[in-house]
Structures are given as structure tokens and as C-alpha cells.
Design a protein that fits this description.
The complex is a heterodimer. By secondary structure, chain A is mainly alpha-helical. Chain A contains ten helices and no strands. Chain A is globular. Chain B is α/β, with parallel strands linked by helices. Chain B has helices at 46-53, 74-79, 95-105, 112-121, 137-149, 167-182, 194-200, 218-225, 230-239; strands at 2-15, 18-31, 35-39, 61-66, 69-70, 80-83, 155-159, 186-191, 203-208, 211-217. In chain B, helix 8 packs across helix 9 (230-239). Chain B is globular. The two termini of chain B are 36 Å apart. Classes of the chains: A mainly alpha, B alpha/beta. Chain A binds chain B through residues 1-4, 6-7, 9-11, 13-14, 17-18, 21-22, 84, 87-90, 92-93, 95-100, 258, 260, and chain B through 54-56, 74-75, 77-78, 80, 82, 84, 86-93, 97, 101-109, 133.
Chain lengths: 261, 245
């Protein structure tokens, strides 16, 4: 086993252990948020709304919430890890250890995927529980492997975005601005709570420029078997984003700021 | 063999269109096994040099090599142990976890025996499972020293290790550093405690404003200035106006 591989595995383990140590904030808190969305929107609107494909609103909402929770957590995992390390001063360790920028990027990105997937599984289980109490039936996942592929790729994209923002931000304020003013609006407008088909043609065209739309529809296809957009097209767009954000994240790790606040 | 060679090193910092020269075309080398001191007042450029060796800051000109390897290369990083000047937090982890992770970063699996030895030597065993964030400044300093030695480096960079520590810890550090040097480890120490440099370093470079003003054996500097301690020689230089502090 090469030294680089041991180093990569150690960094990945450390990053996973970091979010596990604050499991209340990192895993359980998003579960409470998802539970409230399911209760307020899913349960209340289910009897009033019928979604494309004949699904109840609760069923339609579950994959959207899986996407919302997992992407948000994947993003926060890497960005907050880098920022907290900058605050404590231990980010500089990454500069002096003999691990390549590529391995460091991969370790941070994969830790985000692990957290994103963990949250996704819990939100799915919560959705199943709500579905059972609502209609005495579970949501049957139509394409488990497809769902997993879309989730892993999307969490990787958001983990990479977290790395980029973490290494380029010079304050907590900057990182919050990036998340609150750019990422969260894109996620919320990306079809978590609605189908693109209910939008006017103008907004349907506008939403096609939102990369999150492809992620959410890919995950919705994985869970429910329906999507507003061609699955192959979504997969192609998402693959492009994986490559683009991985390259940018590597650049941020290699040339970004390691300075302590 | 030269443990460290620095040739014509230039480090500048830019902030709001203003450029400050921290290290101004400095050259020196340290043979393997030497205990070398970089001394000078605050802002002399000591930490900048150490930061350039560890790739924490980039240099605008010059060359740095560690045992013949380009500083910043994976080969050089494996040979360098680094104790930073500032205390580091490590918010989520205890001492043992941090030392285990660091061993892993250097490609070492199952390093617990070495970790326990270092903890024992630095009187940290009872703090093994304490969160690093809960340690006092002195204990954190000891942990950083243990952390820098986990991969058995050939050269140790100590950046003002005794700044702000009590007399007891300072003695522990001095004895430990001497012991490491006696075992063959090359040590580069930066300090503005002249007593420390006088006691530990075989050779020193006196720096001010990014330049080396004097570089020689510690005893020779004292003899040439006609004093018995490095501190007196240093103060004489200040009086002569060679240094402004």
C-alpha cells in the first residue's frame, strides 16, 4: 500500500469522523428540516394536489427533499471543514504533508459524498414512514442504481463547490454569501417542490439554465421513475459538472488560501 | 551533505498595492546534523524563511533544497518536521487522534508505539485522550512537537518554540531539542530569545529587515564582539545601529 494511498485514506477517515463527531448538527438537524417539509407541505397538500405521473404530492416531494438535504449537506461538509480549519489554523497541515493536491481534493470530496448519502438514506426512510402513515404504502424505488449514481455524482459536485468556496473565502461572511445568495436559490428553484411542467414556457426555459434542475430530476427519476427532462441529458450535464468542479476544486486546493483568519 | 541550502531567497508580501520585502536575497546552508539558529527581532524574516521551506508561503526568487530535494516536493516534505509558531486548535479531535492522523498523512500505519513514546517523553501521556482545544498553550506546544516528530524527520524546523511558555516547559524543550540533535537530527531554530540560541545553537545567523547581518559560529560571534554571551553581543550590535528594534 503506497504512502499516498494511506495518506488519502487517513484524510478521508478524518473528514468523515469530523462530521460524525457532531452528528446532531450534521445528520440529525437536516432530518428535522426534511420532517417539517414533509409534514407542512407533503401531508397538507397531498390531498389537494395531483402531480404529473399520478403521484401524490408527498411522493413527489420525497426525492426533491432527498436532493435538497444531501446537496446542502455535501456542500456544507467540505466548506465548513475548510473554514473551521482555517479558523483553528490546522488547514496549514495540508501544505506540509506529503499528499498530492489531487488526493486532498478527492478525500474532501468523498467525505462530502459520504455525508450526503447518509443524509439521503435517512430522509428516504423518513419519507417512507410518512408515506406509510399517509397511504399505507411505501414508495418503491424504481431505479436504485440510477438513484445512487445521480446522488453520488451530485454530492461530489456540491462537495467540490464547498472545497472551492472554502479555499477562496477569506471570511465566514463570504462563505455564507456564496451559500445563501447563489447555491440555495438555485436548489430551491431547481424543482424540489414543483414540476417544471406546471411552470409557464418562459420559466421552463429559464430553469433549463439552472444546473440543479438536472440533478433533482435525475434523482426523482431514480426514485419515482419520472423526470421532466431526458435522463440521459441530465446524466451528461451532471458528468460535465463533476469534471468541471473537480478541476476547479483541485486548483483551489493547489493554489488557494491556507491562511489562518 | 547539506541538510538545507537556501540560495538568493526573495520573499515579498503584497497588500493593497503595497509590497513589503520580508526576505531580501538571503543565502545560507546548514550541514547535516547541525543545530542552527536564525535570530533577530520581530519582523526580521525568520518565520518567512521557515514558511518558504515548508511551502506555506511562496518565494519570488531563489532556490531552497532539503537534502538535495526541491523544497515543497513530496520527497522534501517527508524529511521535514515542522513546529509552527502559532498554536493550532484542532477543534474536534483529541491528542491521540491528531497524532494518529498525522502518522497516516505521512504514510505510516499503526504508529501507536511511536506516539506513546513521544507522549511519554513530552510528559503528555495523561492528556492523550483530551481534546486539543481543551489543552493549555504549553501542552498544545508539546503536542505540536510530538506531531512534528512522528515520521522521524531528518531536519526539524522549530519556529519560536519557546515563545510564551513557562520556565519548566522551556527547559523540557531545550533538553529534548539537544537530545534530538545529539541523535543526529538537523535542527533549524528561530527565536528572539538570545539565551536560547546561545545555549543550543552551534551556528547562528543574525537577521534584521529581511537580511542576514552576521552568520558564524555562536562562540566566534561572541569572541569577535568581546562578550561572553550572545545577548551581550546582540545588544552591542543594536547600540552600533546595525539593528533597529
Amino acid at each position: 500500500m503506497s504512502a499516498e494511498w494511506i495518506g488519502f485514506r487517513t484524510l478521508l477517515k478524518k473528514e468523515c469522523l469530523r462530521f460524525y463527531k457532531v452528528v446532531g448538527q450534521t445528520i440529525l438537524s437536516p432530518l428535522v428540516n426534511a420532517g417539517l417539509y414533509l409534514l407542512v407541505f407533503g401531508v397538507s397538500f397531498s390531498s389537494m394536489l395531483k402531480m404529473p405521473g399520478g403521484f401524490s404530492y408527498l411522493e413527489f416531494l420525497v426525492p426533491g427533499l432527498i436532493a435538497l438535504s444531501s446537496l446542502n449537506n455535501a456542500l456544507q461538509n467540505s466548506s465548513s471543514s475548510v473554514m473551521i480549519s482555517k479558523f483553528h489554523g490546522d488547514l496549514q497541515d495540508l501544505k506540509i504533508i506529503p499528499i498530492s493536491s489531487c488526493a486532498i481534493t478527492a478525500a474532501y470530496s468523498l467525505a462530502s459524498v459520504v455525508r450526503g448519502l447518509g443524509v439521503a438514506v435517512l430522509v428516504l426512510l423518513l419519507g417512507e414512514a410518512f408515506s406509510y402513515f399517509q397511504s399505507q404504502s411505501f414508495i418503491v424505488i424504481q431505479h436504485p442504481l440510477g438513484c445512487l449514481v445521480f446522488l453520488v455524482m451530485s454530492c461530489m459536485v456540491f462537495g467540490n463547490l464547498g472545497i472551492i468556496s472554502g479555499f477562496t473565502a477569506k471570511s465566514f461572511d463570504q462563505i455564507n454569501s456564496f451559500t445563501n445568495f447563489i447555491i440555495l436559490p438555485l436548489i430551491y428553484l431547481g424543482g424540489v417542490f414543483f414540476s417544471l411542467k406546471i411552470l409557464s414556457p418562459f420559466w421552463q426555459r429559464m430553469d433549463q439554465f439552472n444546473p440543479i434542475v438536472y440533478i433533482i430530476n435525475g434523482i426523482r427519476w431514480g426514485v419515482l421513475g419520472v423526470s421532466d427532462i431526458s435522463v440521459l441529458y441530465s446524466f451528461t450535464v451532471l458528468s460535465g459538472f463533476v469534471l468541471l468542479t473537480s478541476g476547479l476544486a483541485w486548483y483551489a486546493v493547489k493554489y488557494g488560501s491556507y491562511q489562518r483568519f | 551533505m547539506m541538510a538545507l541550502e537556501i540560495k538568493n531567497l526573495l520573499i515579498t508580501y503584497s497588500h493593497k498595492n503595497q509590497t513589503t520585502t520580508a526576505v531580501d536575497h538571503v543565502s545560507f546552508s546548514i550541514p547535516e546534523g547541525e543545530f542552527f539558529g536564525l535570530i533577530g527581532p520581530n519582523g526580521a524574516g525568520k518565520t518567512s524563511i521557515i514558511s518558504a521551506i515548508t511551502s506555506l508561503v511562496s518565494h519570488q526568487a531563489g532556490e531552497i533544497s532539503v537534502f538535495g530535494h526541491h523544497a515543497g516536493s513530496v520527497e522534501a516534505k517527508r524529511l521535514v518536521g515542522y513546529v509552527p509558531q502559532g498554536l493550532v486548535g484542532y477543534g474536534f479531535f483529541n491528542v491521540n487522534e491528531i497524532l494518529q492522523f498525522t502518522s497516516g498523512y505521512f504514510g505510516i500505519k499503526n504508529n501507536q508505539k511511536k506516539i506513546d513514546e513521544l507522549l511519554e517523553r513530552l510528559q503528555l501521556t495523561s492528556y492523550k485522550y483530551k481534546l486539543v482545544s481543551q489543552l493549555s498553550g504549553g501542552l498544545k506546544r508539546r503536542m505540536l512537537i510530538a506531531k512534528s516528530l512522528l515520521h522521524s524527520p531528518k531536519i526539524l524546523l522549530l519556529d519560536e518554540p519557546s515563545a510564551g511558555v513557562d520556565v519548566e516547559l522551556r527547559t523540557i524543550l531545550w533538553n529534548f531539542a539537544t537530545e534530538l540533535n545529539d541523535s543526529g537530527m538537523t535542527i533549524l531554530l528561530t527565536t528572539h530569545y538570545l539565551e536560547e540560541a546561545d545555549r543550543l545553537c552551534k551556528r547562528v545567523a543574525i537577521m534584521n529587515k529581511g537580511k542576514i547581518l552576521a552568520l558564524d559560529k555562536t562562540d566566534r560571534i561572541k569572541t569577535q564582539m568581546g562578550y561572553s554571551t550572545l545577548e551581550e553581543a546582540f545588544l552591542k550590535l543594536i547600540k552600533q545601529g546595525a539593528l533597529s528594534v
